[in-house]
Amino acid sequence: AAAVPAAAVPAAAVPAAVAVPAKQCNRDHSKVLTTDDVLCRVPKGELAFVTLANQAYGEMAVNWALLLLPMLERLGHGDRAVIAGMDQSGVDLFLKHRLPTVTTASFGGIAWNSDHKGSMDGFRWKNGAFRAYGVTKAEVVLWLLRAGRDVSISDVDVAWIAPPYALLRSVPDADVLSGTDCLNVPYDADRSPRKSNVRNCGHQSGSTWSAWFNTGVMFFRARPAAVDMMEEWRDTMAEIKGEAQVDDQLSFNQLVGTVGASGRHAPKFRRFYPLKPASEDGRVVYDGNGSRRIHAIPVSQVCSAHVFHVQQSAEPRGCLVLHLTFVEGWPKNPAKYWRLREAGMLPVRPEPFDQRYLSFTPPQPGPTPPERHEPAPARAGNGWTVVAALQWSPRLKAHLELVDRHIAALRNAIGIARALGRQLVMPRMACLCERAESPAALLPGCTLEGASTPVPHVCPLESVYDVARVERIWQKGYLQLRPWTFLNSSIHKPPAGALPFTPADTTAVRWLAEAPPHGRPPPQGPRQVWLEKGLSAEQLLQAVSAAGASDARVMHLESAEGVFGGFESAAESKLFKEAISGDLLGGWSATWCCTSWNKPAGTFKFKRPVPLPSGVEARGPRTVVDLPDKRECYWQSSPCEL
Predict the structure, then answer these.
(1) Is it the case that residue 267 has pLDDT exceeding 50?
(2) For residue 525, what pLDDT is reported?
(3) What is the share, in percent, of the chain residues with pLDDT greater than 70?
(4) CA 312 to CA 211: how far, in whole Å?
């Protein structure tokens, strides 16, 4: 079986026993495998799992393997996955982790060991190089198909949750299976014949519009039709020269016929719609060529980050994989890593269970406002002014006010966690409005066009903060932040020797509305502490110690609004202000976009909390006002309040 570093994988993911194939193949993962080694390990007619990666995405590829390999090993299929390394530094990293690795040196497409450094996104945003990577990917898949192996090809930003074998058995007629960009789970679940009226979800027979495939998770059966499609896809990408903005995914959709194209693919668009059934149940359809059969995998099985995190609150439900699409931020990797942490799917960076933690109850939304106020405002250029959007969308207005409170509460919790020497468990932020660069795709209802987003929903961290900046809070050693799911043992299973979190581990911190009468101590009880509001960091530390709660594994604040007075120490106060102003709220962090394609004029700035004093002025108890009365406008030439 594949050797996986035990310390990097939760104990629950390691099988008790692994079936060893009778045929003895090379399982030395300290060296690069040959193509013959891989074919030996994957029996003919069986499914090979592959991803491609260079050093820029090396850690994410390691994570891909650390999730997939234990799952396959439990089925006796641990030999059937491999990473195709695209540069020497990436290969070295994979071998260091003792992961099954081949190189792409003998395949066409992007040159082996190409230097695309200078960005943590590598060559992702270099159109010609990324398309050449697509050619390499096609060549790897073709090698396996021609050798009689079925192929699962998935991007490195994929987290495997469950085996796909039942999915494959359910659509035996499909030559190719692919994920999609559909965001409407109920609509997508119904594949009965009908015209489509939901964006990116038109994959049922009879659909006349908006079938779109996402090529991040695909399956190919070792059949002539699949080989034919893959050869055509490879040739299409190879023929495009220069920096034309056509990537592997767009070229695949053009050859299938889901979108219009010029040249040889032009007739396919006309032939593809309306979609024609290629199976009795209509769940498999013909592509625009008329001879190749393709199945659009339901979004409840190949789950985007939007479906998984926003719509399902980080619950796997029926997801076979989590594909980290629909993740905002620049660069995207920090936000994707945070999403994996929230999902409990980042074994390459395991969370610790041996520290002391602080959690808190975040502000909660009130009754959900209506979608809109009538009449709709007139458009102003490519969208609406921020004031017009506020008048039109009561949900947007309520969202801004709610997130203002979220930010203030988090600022206070960061200060209290620092004061008490605890790691902070981030809150489960409920939000009332998504964000998008396209105002027409979002307003006035505040959910992405076509998405089955609940209102309220769990707000992704990058919807409010610049995650690349937030990372600095722990990278600089100021404070460790844990995902909001951290205390949920069904998501974050403790490693061997560590205990899961239970209610008995938590001491609740409750706040006295006013200081108690002179001489009467705050009432204390089992696993609860009563504290006065507005205490300084130093006073909080003394009060928690006096209450005998310093050693509690978890301290939970019933609220973090209006409760923190600041740091008396000038040095600590300076560090706190730097962490909040520079890391948490710096740059474009704590903004909402967009009411207009004129992004600066269509952006809101969430309220910045009122600065906290230092020295003796930080001492309490006292009343603390967290937020200013007025909102500072992002674009100073435009008003931003009603």
Answers:
(1) yes
(2) 59
(3) 92
(4) 23
Residue 45 pLDDT greater than 80, yes or no = yes
Is residue 148 left, alpha or beta, with left meaning phi > 0 and alpha meaning psi from -120 to 50? Answer: left
Residue 308's H or E segment, with its range, is: none
- The rounded distance, in Å, linking the Cα atoms of 68 and 9 is 11
| Higher per-residue pLDDT: 296 or 518 | 296
Q: Beta strand 554-557 with 528-532: parallel, antiparallel or unpaired? A: unpaired
Whole-number Å distance between alpha carbons of 174 and 82? 24
pLDDT (tens digit, 9 = 90+) per residue, 313-338? 999 999 999 999 999 876 678 999 99
Calpha distance 54→61 (Å, rounded): 9
Contacts with 123 (C-beta within 8 Å, 6 or more apart), sequence order: 54, 56, 110, 114, 116, 129, 130, 133
* Tokens coding 416: 């209290």
Question: How open is the CA angle 499-502-507, to the nearest 5 degrees?
Answer: 115
> d(Cα 314, Cα 492) in Å, to the nearest integer?
12
Is the pLDDT at 573 greater than 90, yes or no?
yes
Gyration radius of the chain's alpha carbons:
27
Query: What Å distances lie between residue 300 and 174, 182, 226, 304, CA to CA?
Result: 19, 10, 24, 9
Nearest to 621 by CA among 541, 533, 540: 533
- Four-residue CA torsion sign, 535, 538, 540, 543: negative
Residues in the chain: 642
Lowest-pLDDT range of 206-210, 237-241, 562-566: 237-241
